[in-house]
């Protein structure tokens, strides 16, 4: 008997939905208590069970786009890294990317608990005290953040990849929004010099929103974002999410959405496996691959 092969976890979800007529939102999501690396690897192994055609066909159904913020649109992840390295140096410990991968995209208190527990300093520094100390340093850094690196030379000058994509989708009439784990006070600091880009978003959903009960990899923030587009809740299968963090990729998949991952090059490649597409920069994204209006400028 010939067995079909499926290469993406989203395809497994599609088969479950088709076979049982179960709404995507009710399909149980990955437990946040399982290590992210295990989630990605086990998801990849489980994916070898059916055909490879679902993902390609669904790319043509995308009508709405959701962007993560930190590390995807704006270059703020470096600030978190710098501050956490400073704090850990007091305990003669180092901050590495395996730990950062577990913290990225989560709500602040959830990431703080991971930080103090994984580094073994919880007896000396509580998660709450860590946040207070980190906050004082980040408050000064956030207003200096820039849009994510990656520029192309167009007739109008130098354009950032994030700016180019957001402006293109908005001009083409594609509904776009932001779903971030950042709280409102941080969002305002981070975006104060980038109002032009963020004003193009239909709406912003933040980590301290009442509807976001759990942080990523729970799908809460993406499902809340899907409900707030004009005209009411959008079918998750028609939404494309842009993410840089492993927990964010899982959150989008748990919401039943397609995901393009734009990871930091220092992130272990094992975290790439669950994303539908992995890019080195937003400049590499081709809207036409997903049935979205193609760029009208040249990226060469």
Provide a quick synopsis of the model:
This protein starts with 8 loop residues before the first helix and ends in a 22-residue tail after the last strand. Strands 5-4-1-6-7-8 form a six-stranded parallel beta sheet, with helices on both faces. Strands 2-3 form a two-stranded antiparallel ribbon.
What would CATH call the homologous superfamily of the largest domain?
Answer: HAD superfamily/HAD-like
Q: Please give the share of residues in helix.
A: 25-40%
Calculate the mean pLDDT score and round it.
82
Number of strands: 8
**How many H/I helices?**
12
User: For the report, how would you describe the main beta sheet?
Assistant: 6 strands, parallel
What is the number of independent domains? 2
Label the structural class: alpha/beta
Provide an overview of this structure.
The protein is of the alpha/beta class. The protein folds into 2 domains: 1-75 and 148-300, HAD superfamily/HAD-like (Rossmann fold, 3-Layer(aba) Sandwich); 77-144, DNA polymerase, domain 1. It has 12 helices and 8 strands. It has helices at 9-20, 36-46, 53-58, 77-89, 97-103, 108-118, 127-141, 161-171, 184-191, 195-198, 220-227, 246-254; strands at 64-67, 151-154, 157-160, 176-179, 204-205, 239-243, 258-261, 277-278. A 6-stranded parallel beta sheet has the order 5-4-1-6-7-8, with helices on both faces. Strands 2-3 form a two-stranded antiparallel sheet. Helix 4 packs across helix 7 (127-141). The longest helix has 15 residues, at 127-141. It is globular and about 50 Å long. Residues 1-54 and 151-159 have low confidence and may be disordered. It catalyses: sn-glycerol 1-phosphate + H2O = glycerol + phosphate; sn-glycerol 3-phosphate + H2O = glycerol + phosphate. GO terms for molecular function: metal ion binding; sn-glycerol 3-phosphatase activity.
């Amino acid at each position: 008997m010939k067995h079909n092969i499926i290469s993406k976890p989203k395809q497994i979800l599609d088969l479950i939905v088709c076979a049982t007529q179960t709404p995507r939102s009710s399909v149980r999501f990955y437990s946040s208590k399982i290590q992210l690396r295990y989630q990605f690897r086990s998801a990849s192994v489980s994916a070898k069970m059916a055909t490879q055609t679902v993902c390609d066909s669904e790319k043509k159904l995308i009508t709405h786009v959701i962007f993560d913020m930190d590390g995807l649109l704006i270059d703020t992840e470096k600030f978190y890294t710098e501050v956490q390295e400073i704090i850990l140096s007091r305990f003669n410990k180092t901050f590495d990317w395996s730990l950062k991968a577990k913290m990225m995209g989560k709500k602040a208190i959830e990431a703080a608990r991971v930080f103090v527990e994984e580094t073994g300093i919880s007896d000396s520094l509580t998660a709450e005290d860590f946040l207070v100390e980190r906050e004082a340093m980040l408050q000064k850094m956030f207003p200096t953040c820039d849009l994510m690196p990656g520029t192309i030379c167009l007739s109008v000058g130098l354009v950032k990849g994030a700016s180019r994509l957001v402006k293109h989708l908005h001009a083409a009439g594609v509904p776009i929004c932001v779903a971030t784990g950042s709280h409102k006070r941080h969002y305002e600091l981070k975006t104060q010099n980038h109002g032009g880009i963020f004003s193009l978003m239909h709406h912003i959903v933040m980590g301290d929103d009442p509807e976001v009960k759990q942080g990523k990899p729970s799908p809460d923030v993406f499902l809340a974002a899907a409900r707030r587009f004009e005209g009411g809740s959008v079918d998750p299968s028609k939404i494309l999410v842009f993410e840089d963090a492993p927990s964010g990729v899982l959150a989008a998949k748990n919401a039943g959405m397609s995901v393009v991952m734009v990871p930091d090059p220092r992130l272990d490649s094992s975290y790439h496996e669950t994303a539908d597409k992995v890019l080195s920069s937003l400049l590499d994204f081709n809207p036409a691959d997903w049935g979205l209006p193609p760029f009208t400028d040249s990226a060469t």
